[in-house]
Amino acid sequence: MIHPHSELRFINDAIGYGLFATRPIPKGTVTWVGDSLDQIITPEKLALLPETLKYQVHRYSYLNGRADRILCWDHGRFVNHSCAASCLSPGFNFEIAVRDIALGEEITDDYGTLNLEEPFACLCGAPGCRGQVLPDDPLHLSAEWDRQISGAFPQIHRVEQPLWELVEEKAEIARVLAGEIPVPSVFTHYRAVLTA
Ligand SMILES: C[S@@+](CC[C@H](N)C(=O)[O-])C[C@H]1O[C@@H](n2cnc3c(N)ncnc32)[C@H](O)[C@@H]1O
Ligand SMILES: [Zn+2]
């Protein structure tokens, strides 16, 4: 489920729609969490879908690293990629804001974390835009993503969390915040790790 303080807006013909903050969202806020209404589409189920639905699944779902596609039931499926993403997923089933998101700012993540099957041409326009987002980006970028997530993680218990009820890994989060275990790496979701 996507953070409630967000709305869908049309950006342009090339990118389509995106999600924008309707209130400031502070760093450390859970901005998206996987929930029980999301569809899990196995490779077998995908193969049986008509082409029209296959297109929708490829456009709006992400691969969870176990070859299943997760299709979010709400506006969470409209989160666009940015090479300077405002949200990233630690090795948990949720994303957090890695910096303060201003009112009206787009809520983005990094498709490089989502087990891309092929290169993705990026039009994000961020300074330092990678131009192409690549399936093996985690090999080069996980350390930087983990650095940003670790910087935001301690804020989790200090900011308003409208999605907290849906977060399943509360015990692990408490252990991270207590310094007992490290923040799980973005790499936890990487399919090459999970299928090895
Ligand atoms: C999960 S959908 C996001 C919602 C999409 N903008 C829409 O309106 O349907 C993913 C698609 O959005 C577009 N998109 C997202 N981020 C983009 C980016 N940084 N550059 C270019 N296209 C992007 C691509 O067409 C991509 O396949
Ligand atoms: Zn980019």
Give the overall shape.
globular
- Topology order in helix (H) and strand (E) letters: EEEEHHEEEEEEEEHHH
Radius of gyration: 16 Å
Superfamily (CATH H level) name: SET domain
Q: List bound small molecules.
A: S-adenosylmethionine, zinc ion
CATH architecture: Beta Complex
Q: Give the termini distance in whole angstroms.
A: 30 Å
Number of helices: 5
Mean pLDDT: 95
Whole-number tally of structural domains: 1
In terms of DSSP E residues, the strand content is 15-25%
Q: Percent helix among the residues?
A: 10-25%
Class from helix and strand fractions? alpha+beta
DSSP summary, beta strand count:
12
Largest β-sheet summary:
3 strands, antiparallel
CATH fold assignment: Beta-clip-like
Unreliable stretches (pLDDT < 50, length at least 5) are: none
CATH top-level class: Mainly Beta
Q: State the strand order across the main sheet.
A: 3-9-8
Can you walk me through this structure?
With 196 residues, the chain is an alpha+beta fold. It has one domain: Beta-clip-like, CATH 2.170.270. The strands form five sheets. It has a three-stranded antiparallel β-sheet, covered by helices on one side. The protein has a three-stranded antiparallel β-sheet with strand order 4-6-5. It has a two-stranded antiparallel ribbon with strand order 1-2. Strand 8 and strand 9 form a beta hairpin. 33% of the residues are buried.
